[in-house]
UniProtKB/TrEMBL annotation:
CDD domains: LPLAT_LCLAT1-like. Residues 1-17 form the signal peptide. Keywords: Signal. This is O-acyltransferase. It comes from the Eukaryota. Residues 83-206 form the Phospholipid/glycerol acyltransferase domain. Pfam families: Acyltransferase. It comes from Aureococcus anophagefferens (Harmful bloom alga).
């Protein structure tokens, strides 16, 4: 239980420091001046710090170990600038457990996530994700979601390297979702009778490929599995309230260079993209079924840069200084309260991400 409380306190306090005390003040100072590029540089710094710290918390507070197999991305493909990371969606916390992988790939500051729009206005975390320019998808109007992916990824691409994470299944492997996916899988030709993955969708990945165009270096095909004490899927309540973390996260990365993708897929064809995904997901099903026996070779030095402890100490120091400052300074508490009110008010304009995009479009039109 203590471990879960420490983990939650560190993430909440650091998210408060990042979103309330750093990101919004940067936006208030820079965006009215039209300094969009400078603001995005500030955002990239915060993104690098926070995802590196959150990933380090999973390992140092949660005690979770990582085993990486497949392509050794940092050593062999470190020049990849724009990549799409597609993964099976085993549980609601897959994105959290993939952050340490992004850190090992040296791309914590370039991480871009596609997620439900219901998370956009969640205090602290949702506010930060707005500033990070993530793609919020309603999952009701497909055309609108595809347009959002194109717009946000193009903006991320112009700001620097892009490491975009998406889950083509669209939802996690809950019993009800698995039941629906099995029923749908039986209607396909040939039928898919899967027990460990859901049937992937192609539209989102196709839009992302189209958005990045020739700048796309590769797709990282990721298969994630967990070793847990109970044998059940990781759960946020178990982690945060009881301190129950996975013992080990097993991640297999297969790099698919853009020029090796099917021609129709390279131009963003949804049908071709879905066929490609179905092939890859059949391999994931077999790999998870066999407990990853064929997922080789193991990546040497899975700790990557070896800087996780540094990020943990740095982030913990920021969290401690934030808590101490709020306790001791009435002025800081007043400023933080004003920042929270401003974040809430931004919802009237769609959120900070929409405000930033509007300013960027106006600036481009004036050139």
């Amino acid at each position: 239980m203590f471990r879960g409380l420490v983990f939650s306190a560190l993430l909440v306090t650091s998210a408060f420091a990042g979103s309330v005390l750093y990101l919004l003040p940067c936006a208030v100072v820079l965006l009215p001046l039209g300094a969009v590029d400078t603001f995005r540089s500030c955002v990239q710094l915060c993104r690098w710090w926070w995802f590196s710290f959150a990933g380090a918390c999973v390992e140092y507070v949660g005690g979770t170990r990582y085993e990486l197999t497949g392509d050794d991305v940092p050593r062999s493909f470190g020049d990849d600038r724009c990549v799409l990371v597609v993964s099976n969606h085993h549980c609601r916390l897959d994105w959290l457990f993939l952050w340490p992988v992004a850190c090992r790939h040296g791309r914590a500051g370039a991480l871009h996530v596609m997620l439900k729009d219901s998370l956009k206005h969640v205090p602290l975390f949702g506010w930060a994700m707005q500033a990070f320019g993530f793609s919020f998808l309603g999952r009701v109007d497909r055309a609108s979601d595809v347009a959002t992916i194109r717009e946000r990824l193009r903006a991320a691409q112009t700001a620097g390297p892009a490491y975009a994470l998406l889950f083509p299944e669209g939802t996690d492997l809950s019993p009800s979702n698995l039941k629906k996916a099995r029923a749908y899988g039986l209607t396909l030709d040939p039928p898919r009778r899967w027990n460990h993955v859901l049937v992937p969708k192609g539209a989102g990945l196709a839009a992302a490929i189209e958005a990045l165009g020739d700048d796309l270096d590769a797709i990282y095909d990721v298969t994630i599995r967990y070793d847990t004490t109970s044998g059940e899927r990781p759960d946020e309540k178990a982690m945060c309230l009881r301190g129950v973390f996975p013992r080990k996260v097993r991640v297999h990365v297969a790099r698919e260079p853009r020029d090796k993708l099917p021609r129709a897929m390279r131009v963003g064809d949804p049908a071709a993209t879905k066929l490609w995904l179905l092939e890859k997901w059949a391999l994931k099903e077999a790999a998870v079924e066999s407990r990853g026996e064929e997922l080789k070779p193991k990546v040497s030095d899975p700790d990557g840069t070896g800087k996780s402890f540094y990020h943990f100490v740095l982030g913990s120091g920021v969290a401690y200084a934030t808590a101490k400052g709020l306790w001791a300074s009435g002025g800081l508490r007043a400023a933080a309260a004003a920042s929270c009110v401003a974040w809430s008010g931004l919802a009237l304009f769609g959120g900070l991400d929409d405000v930033e995009m509007a300013i960027a479009k106006k600036k481009r039109a004036e050139k």
